[in-house]
UniProtKB/TrEMBL annotation:
Domain HTH iclR-type: 16-79
Organism: Rhodococcus jostii (strain RHA1)
Signal peptide stretch: none
Full protein name: Glycerol operon regulatory protein
Alphabetical list of SMART domains matching this protein: HTH_ICLR (SM00346)
GO biological process: glycerol metabolic process; negative regulation of DNA-templated transcription
Pfam families for this protein: HTH_IclR (PF09339), IclR_C (PF01614)
SUPFAM superfamilies in UniProt: GAF domain-like, Winged helix' DNA-binding domain
Domain IclR-ED: 80-264
GO molecular function per UniProt: DNA binding; DNA-binding transcription factor activity
InterPro entries: GAF-like_dom_sf (IPR029016), HTH_MetabolicPath_Reg (IPR050707), Tscrpt_reg_IclR_C (IPR014757), Tscrpt_reg_IclR_N (IPR005471), WH-like_DNA-bd_sf (IPR036388), WH_DNA-bd_sf (IPR036390)
Function: May be an activator protein for the gylABX operon.
Swiss-Prot/TrEMBL keywords: DNA-binding, Glycerol metabolism, Plasmid, Transcription, Transcription regulation
């Protein structure tokens, strides 16, 4: 009897490890972006042996969760995962709560508006509304990640983080690179952060669309730090004065109202609130 229980415990532990390893692989492929990641790079990213990575990729490929781009020998996320992500997106409450504010900003500015949240040293776009202005600066897709400090929205998340966390993040940024994502200059970030906190908003050129730039404002939580950010991106002349002042005022107003709404839902109103609202089935 004891032997049977021991075997069951070992099998359960092994199954949990397999799930954790598969999840780490999926995350590593997601981090690699559209270009995907080769088996060797996945082994380095996850710390798993090539044999283990190859075995897990075989299972994930059979499920359709991962696909092999044979032209580049790189693995990319499969369509079933897109469906799973959309199912979660349809059910969580965070973007639903933010939607009226994004739509209003897109209507007021006629430009593309983004909602971004922080995860580690990266910023993730969780929603976007494309404006009606015919010349558009669309730099980020929903679900894409950018390094903190590399664009207006992610810079707002960084600038309004806890001081100790800012120091830690500034140290970690140079060591991490996302596919297709510009790496911010760590030496320039302290001055940009100080300027943003003084002005109450961020302004930065986009690195993916020449001639475009963005403005970002933080959505402040209960502790006074950013739990999310709104940003607007457009061709540079549309974000110069005197129009910039109006755009910043609109963004700050919507960010304040949204922050107040989040605080009504959860008095703490912190990053945990955002994570909870981004989980499936919590709306």
């Amino acid at each position: 009897m004891l032997g049977t229980e021991s075997n069951m415990a070992e099998e359960s532990s092994g199954a949990i490890r397999s799930v954790e390893r598969a999840a780490a692989l999926i995350q590593a492929i997601a981090d690699a972006g559209k270009s995907g990641s080769r088996l060797t790079d996945l082994a380095l990213a996850t710390g798993l042996s090539k044999t283990t990575v190859h075995r897990l990729l075989g299972t994930l490929t059979k499920l359709g969760w991962v696909e092999l781009d044979e032209s580049r020998s790189a693995y990319v996320l499969g369509l079933p995962l897109v469906g799973i992500g959309m199912a979660a997106s349809d059910r969580h409450g965070f973007t639903s709560l933010a939607a009226p504010h994004l739509n209003r900003l897109a209507e007021l500015t006629s430009d593309t508006v983004y909602l971004t949240v922080k995860t580690g040293s990266q910023a993730v776009c969780v929603d976007r509304v494309v404006g009606t202005y015919p010349i558009r600066a669309i730099t980020t897709q929903i679900g894409e990640r950018r390094m903190l400090g590399s664009c207006a929205g992610s810079l707002a998340l960084l600038a309004w983080a806890e001081p100790d966390e800012v120091d830690r993040l500034l140290t970690s940024i140079p060591t991490t690179q996302l596919s297709g994502s510009a790496l911010p200059d760590p030496a320039a970030l302290p001055a940009l952060i100080q300027r943003a906190r003084t002005a109450g908003f961020t302004q930065a050129p986009t690195t993916l669309v020449p001639g475009a730039e963005g403005i970002g404002v933080p959505i402040i939580g209960g502790s006074g730090t950013a739990i999310a950010a709104f940003s607007v991106e457009a061709v540079s002349p549309r974000l110069s004065e005197p129009r910039r002042t109006h755009v910043v005022e609109w963004m700050k107003r919507e960010a304040t109202v949204f922050a107040q709404r989040l605080q009504q839902l959860d008095g703490a109103s912190n990053e945990g609130t955002v994570r909870k609202l981004l989980q499936p089935g919590t709306a």
